Amino acid sequence: MGQSAHPRHTFAQAVLTAAHAVLEEHGEAGCLAKWAVRPCPVALLRDLRRLHLRDDVCALPHGLPSP
User: Fold this and answer.
1) Is residue 29 a part of any domain in this protein?
2) Range of 30's domain?
3) How does pLDDT run across 15-57, given as a tens digit for each residue?
4) Residue 38 covered by a domain
């Protein structure tokens, strides 16, 4: 596994923000159609958000599209 000089909460927030932007623009079906490799890992992103909200102090938004 790689290492980062950034705190875990910063990394988690960056992943969630980027994923939210992609999902808002393309939706799950659009992501699969555009990249055609595998479906967007929405369940894993929801788990990351849940753990991030539970374990990290962060006042930034954490939205993901509803299932």
Assistant:
1) yes
2) 8-55
3) 888 888 888 888 888 887 877 777 778 888 888 888 888 888 7
4) yes
Q: What is the pTM of this model?
A: 0.66
Structure tokens at 36: 């055609």
CA distance 55 to 45: 15
Residue 62 has pLDDT above 60, yes or no: yes
* Residue 60 domain flag: no
Number of domains in the chain: 1
Question: What pLDDT does residue 13 have?
Answer: 86
Distance CA 7, CA 3 (A): 10
Domain-located, residue 36: yes
Tokens 């788990």 locate to 47
Tokens 């938004």, located at residue: 61
